[in-house]
Amino acid sequence: MTHPNSRYASYFGAILPILCLAGALMLGACSPKNDNISALQQEVWKNPEDTAAMLKLGNAYAQQNRYDEAEETYKNALALDPELDAAYHSLGAVYFNRQDYPQARDWFKRHLARSPKDSLRLYDLGNALMQMKEYAKAADAYSAAIDNSHSFTEAHYNLAVCFARTGRMDEARQIYNWLLDKNNYLAVSLQNHLQGGKQAD
Q1: Is the dihedral of CA 170, 173, 177, 178 positive or negative?
Q2: Do 162 and 130 form a contact (C-beta atoms < 8 A)?
Q3: CB within 8 A of 23, min separation 6: which ones?
Q4: What are phi and psi of 168, to 5 degrees?
Q5: CATH number of 9-196
């Protein structure tokens, strides 16, 4: 199950019912055409030290599911500027979209280290951990995200799923009751997991 505010394209096909958001970086307002990629390639070729142009090109590759090229472009940008914050997130997203969740986790951790209380960074890390079925660690990440942004309904939802997967049904139901007031759509979706209880992986 995914949510309309999906953070990465491949989350739509994720095995686990995680919710992902804030997709501006990987999913821009529209998918670029190949001619747009060609123009961005020319821009990078003319300005080989322009990391902003590299990020645009990497994003365009990612939007076209050309993840090998996106990865190389982001890493080239990061080599030029190790402080390029967006590149850490983008590399995590590339690995996530490839379903290489350990690598995604590692890049999201590096991104989080640059702003340890950022709720979206904690949420990204939780999503990678959840895909790895490390539910307790994912729950910790989602809980920390909620501590910094209590109205983060998607983090509450994913936290409840983690609780359901680990048999913490009372806590999962508390979140369900909270979501009934905040986001009935998510509450209805969560109800399916609560009815099933702890699931075998």
Answers
A1: positive
A2: yes
A3: 5, 6, 7, 8, 9
A4: -90, 65
A5: 1.25.40.10
Q: C-alpha angle 175/13/40, rounded to 5°?
A: 115
What three-state secondary structure class fits 163? helix
Tokens matching residue 146? 């909620």
Percent composition of the chain: helix, strand, coil (DSSP 3-state, to 5)? 70, 0, 30
User: From CA 123, how far away is CA 93, in angstroms rounded?
Assistant: 12
User: For residue 138, which of 120, 115, 159 has the smallest C-alpha distance?
Assistant: 159
Tokens coding 19: 């919710």
Residues 87-138: tens digit of each pLDDT: 999 999 999 999 999 999 999 999 999 999 999 999 999 999 999 999 999 9
Tokens read off for 31: 């998918």
Instruction: Give the Cα separation of 156 and 145 in Å (integer).
Output: 9
Question: What gap in Å lies between CA 179 and CA 185, rounded to an integer?
Answer: 9
Say if CB 59 and CB 49 are below 8 A apart: no
